[in-house]
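Exercise 7. Given the encoded structure of a 524-residue chain, write a plausible sequence.
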């Protein structure tokens, strides 16, 4: 190949018939890549799929398709609800899509090529709870990929987010910057308090079952047995999540949240979907929660559901809706004189105002929360407020006072062994040091965040740490590390549906545009 000749990268896409729009987006992504990135990187991506065979032969010839698979450099498989067209002539495979994947996989095992990417479009929890034949095969396939850890896979929510995934992964492939599948660590640790509540409820159910036996109440015995079984299943699902077996945990949680009327189990399911980035399923769990507890009822359960719903809206960048929902929670908590709930809601409202840039109202909310937490001796709540006040002071430029708040919050959380909240304060300190220009200390703090959150599986916090590390490396002029950090952050922000993904994507675009400009500035 001459120096001026572009490197050809042949990219094959395989999918069942329910992803027509995604196949169009695949070709759109390659067109855009070839116009911009391809010129700068001296590469040309060539899209391949059954459409090309149809255009050249007038029919869908699996033999010709297999030739394209044997010649491709990158193989992309994308799936949603369908497993693929029945293939009577493709034994031992049950569909042509499955045959295509395994053909690429066997070639990869022998030669290390093609690079294989697998993308799954998210399916709602209710459908997964009662999947049918086609979706059941897709779920089992996801579990197989997770267990074998040979092939990286990702989730996406829409044709547009699929386009972004194709763009990101093909750029990384062309530059030789892909992560290895075995490096993936998706363990998710659910809140200990929620697990303890589930265990307590299970023990109560077992105790009442014995009482029902003595009373010979067969109907009550059966009901309590079902309750105990559901609670044990929830514990098992949480254990699987902690072990990194997310697909197996998801299978259990989708069934549980669809069938149960137990609010403790729904809370655990909400936390699982929230922490794994499936915000749509998390929303649906809270909708069911509110249906059971009564959205108009002034109960603790309804207030807690509204509080969690407000957090989800904030994560999606819908601050007006978040404020509205948190105020509903506040009204209920005040009517119940539920002091801890009032303090929590003030803190949540403070975060909404801080995100808007309304530091005055944010500080007022945090101060109100702090007073209540001090009255109750609720040191965990005090630690949260100290950290939030630190953010307000930092944004005002009062760095000394901000650091004092962060350190106070960190000390409490270290004493209590609250890893999640320790990570929050390490992140806050990292931001402060970065603003001060102390890049070494900032990097140290962000890496402490990653060390904790990669164990806990907190995707939003991990993504923030990556993007913040990118800023540190940018200030140092380490362009390669900046791009790596931004790409990692973008992938995670996409998974959780965070609006910050667009901001970091823009930073990455500006970085790449800057690189392209500098390449043309070399003196002759």
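Solution.
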């Amino acid at each position: 190949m001459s120096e001026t000749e572009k490197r050809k990268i042949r990219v094959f896409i395989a999918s069942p018939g329910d992803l027509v729009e995604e196949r169009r987006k695949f070709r759109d992504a390659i067109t855009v890549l070839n116009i911009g990135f391809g010129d700068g990187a001296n590469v040309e991506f060539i899209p391949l799929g059954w459409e090309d065979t149809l255009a050249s032969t007038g029919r869908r010839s699996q033999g010709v398709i297999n030739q394209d698979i044997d010649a491709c450099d990158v193989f992309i498989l994308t799936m949603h609800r369908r497993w693929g067209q029945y293939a009577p002539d493709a034994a031992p495979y049950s569909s042509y899509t499955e045959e295509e994947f395994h053909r690429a996989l066997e070639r990869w095992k022998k030669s290390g090529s093609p690079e294989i990417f697998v993308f799954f479009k998210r399916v709602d929890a209710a459908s997964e709870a009662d999947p049918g034949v086609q979706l059941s095969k897709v779920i089992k396939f996801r579990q197989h990929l997770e267990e074998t850890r040979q092939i990286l896979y990702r989730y996406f929510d829409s044709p547009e987010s699929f386009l972004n995934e194709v763009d990101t992964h093909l750029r990384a492939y062309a530059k030789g910057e892909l992560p290895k599948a075995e490096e993936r660590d998706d363990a998710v640790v659910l809140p200990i308090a929620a697990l303890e509540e589930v265990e307590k409820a299970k023990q109560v159910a077992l105790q009442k079952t014995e009482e029902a036996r003595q009373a010979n109440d067969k109907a009550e015995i059966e009901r309590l047995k079902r309750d105990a079984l559901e609670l044990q299943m929830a514990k098992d699902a949480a254990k699987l999540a902690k072990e990194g077996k997310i697909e197996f945990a998801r299978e259990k949680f989708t069934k549980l949240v669809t069938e149960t009327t137990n609010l403790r189990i729904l809370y655990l399911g909400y936390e699982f979907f929230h922490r794994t980035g499936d915000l749509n399923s998390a929303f649906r769990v809270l909708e069911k929660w509110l249906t059971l507890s009564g959205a108009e009822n002034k109960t603790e359960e309804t207030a807690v559901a509204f509080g969690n719903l407000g957090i989800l809206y904030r994560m999606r960048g819908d601050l007006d809706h978040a404020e509205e929902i948190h105020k509903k929670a506040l009204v209920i908590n005040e009517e119940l004189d539920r002091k801890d709930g009032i303090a929590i809601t003030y803190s949540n409202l403070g975060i909404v105002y801080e995100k808007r840039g309304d530091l005055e109202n944010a500080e007022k909310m945090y101060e109100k929360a702090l007073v209540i937490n001090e009255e109750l001796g609720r040191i965990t709540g005090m630690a949260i407020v100290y950290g939030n006040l630190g953010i307000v002071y930092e944004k005002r430029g009062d760095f000394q006072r901000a650091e004092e708040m962060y350190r106070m919050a960190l000390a409490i959380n270290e004493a209590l062994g609250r890893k999640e909240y320790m990570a929050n304060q390490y992140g806050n300190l990292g931001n402060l040091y970065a603003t001060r220009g102390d890049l070494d200390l900032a990097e140290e703090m962000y890496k402490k965040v990653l060390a904790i959150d990669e164990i806990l599986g907190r995707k939003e916090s991990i993504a923030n740490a990556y993007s913040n590390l990118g800023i540190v490396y940018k200030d140092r002029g380490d362009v390669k590390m900046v791009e790596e950090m931004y790409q990692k952050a973008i992938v995670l922000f996409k998974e959780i549906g965070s609006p910050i993904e667009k901001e970091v994507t823009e930073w990455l675009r500006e970085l790449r545009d800057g690189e392209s400009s500098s390449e043309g500035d070399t003196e002759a």
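Remark. The beta strands are 7-14, 43-48, 74-79, 115-121, 153-156. Students should compare their own answers with the one above.
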